[in-house]
Design brief:
Largest sheet of chain B: none
Largest interface: A-B, 61 and 64 residues
Strand content of chain B: under 5%
Oligomer: heterodimer
CATH superfamily of chain A: Cytochrome c oxidase, subunit III, four-helix bundle
Structural class of chain A: mainly alpha
Distance between the termini of chain A: 65 Å
Low-confidence stretches of chain B: 1-6, 110-118
Radius of gyration of chain A: 22 Å
Low-confidence stretches of chain A: none
Strand order of the largest sheet of chain A: 1-2
Order of helices and strands of chain A: EEHHHHHHHH
Distance between the termini of chain B: 79 Å
Number of strands of chain B: 0
Strand content of chain A: under 5%
Largest sheet of chain A: 2 strands, antiparallel
Helix content of chain B: 55-70%
Mean pLDDT of chain A: 93
Number of helices of chain A: 8
Order of helices and strands of chain B: HHH
């Protein structure tokens, strides 16, 4: 395959080359939409059936950490968009800068996710043998990150939820299965994205990306923004159920 | 060259700043809206705001607004198939009558605790 400057032999113009690459990336993203769509459908059906348990589960996860992560991820999308701008307009020095910022924000997101997951394990809210929706209420000494007032609210909430749904413990596990499944798959996409960013960073430091050819920055940017969109939906679906108390 | 000139649209940083600011304001708005009791409309408001945010990301951050028609069509096709997936499956679930005579098994909480082993 011969190549003339930045133009590969099978294309006529740089524009056609660029459009072809981004169309291919979009078709991959469509398969991702259907992939996450199926999971969200399963979530919707269970939420519809066991709303009490889903609301109880949603109130047991940290809204503060979820909101922080939403802001962090939106900011990382912004810096990613800026690195695409830098490569399109030939600002060679700015490309690694914005890519590094994106990578740092991505790592902060994953760090906060780790704190959240650790908290769930600590509170016995991981589906399986040891799952117990009322673990913190039953063992007040074991959950020292919750104040006595918070525990009292939770005790009342669980009693109320049990009255509406006698099998709260089983149904709340459906919520936490959805929580770990959806955020886990999202985090996996983030880890893959972080790996791709490291590769882009390496390329940008060697001056690989120019206004004529910046396809990798462009399409990995599309991937990164897609992962951001998934989170835009996961945040209200998982964190914001029945928050008005 | 016979082909039309290279006419890439480069979105400027100012536009990105406006979009990220809007996205952050909408995030604040959705958290605030969740604290108000709108009964069954809480989820509607939350999903409307999420869709508005996703649209901004797709149009500006992902450059869909400046993409060729064929790319835009692929994006719309994705939304269309997603709607088929969600809408047709949910319309089946909410309209089903099960063997116990319940109009929809999904609207009844069934105590399954007795079925599980001690």
């Amino acid at each position: 395959m011969h190549r003339t400057g930045a133009l590969f032999g099978q294309f006529k113009t740089l524009e056609q080359q660029k459009d072809t690459a981004s169309l291919g990336m979009w078709i991959f993203l469509v398969t991702e939409v259907m992939f996450f769509g199926g999971i969200m459908l399963a979530y919707t059906i269970n939420r519809h059936a066991y709303f009490t348990a889903f609301a109880m589960g949603s109130n047991a996860i940290s809204l503060k950490l979820g909101t922080i992560n939403t802001v962090v991820l939106l900011a990382s999308s912004f810096t990613m968009a800026m690195s695409v701008w830098a490569s399109q307009s030939g600002k060679q020095k700015l490309i690694p800068l914005f890519l590094t910022l994106t990578l740092i924000l991505g790592c902060i997101f994953l760090g906060v996710k780790y704190i959240e997951y650790a908290q769930k394990f600590h509170h016995h809210l991981v589906p399986g043998r040891n799952f117990q929706m009322s673990y913190c209420v039953d063992n007040p000494g074991k959950c020292d990150d919750l104040t006595p007032e918070e525990l009292e609210v939770e005790r009342a909430e669980i009693a109320k939820a049990r009255a509406a749904d006698p099998d709260l413990n089983a149904h709340a596990q459906l919520y936490f299965s959805a929580y770990f499944g959806m955020t886990g798959l999202h985090a996996l996409h983030m880890i893959i994205g972080a790996g791709l960013l490291v590769w882009l960073l390496h390329g940008s430091l060697k001056g690989m990306f120019t206004p004529e050819w910046n396809t990798p920055v462009d399409i990995i940017g599309l991937y990164w923004h897609f992962v951001d969109i998934v989170w835009i939906y996961l945040f209200p679906l998982l964190y914001l159920i029945d928050r008005h108390k | 060259m016979a082909e039309k000139e290279h006419t890439e649209h480069i979105v400027q940083p100012g536009t990105y700043v406006v979009i990220i600011t809007t996205l952050l304001i909408l995030t604040g708005l959705t958290v605030y809206a969740a604290t108000i009791d709108l009964e069954r409309f809480n989820i509607v408001v939350a999903l409307l705001i999420a869709t508005l945010k996703a649209t901004l990301v797709v149009l500006i951050f992902m450059h869909a607004k400046y993409s060729p028609r064929r790319t835009q069509m692929v994006i719309l096709a994705a939304v269309f198939w997603l709607v088929i997936l969600l809408f047709m499956t949910m319309s089946d679930y909410v309209s089903r009558i099960d063997y116990r005579g319940f109009r929809s098994p999904m609207t009844h909480i069934v105590d399954t605790s007795a079925l599980r082993r001690a």
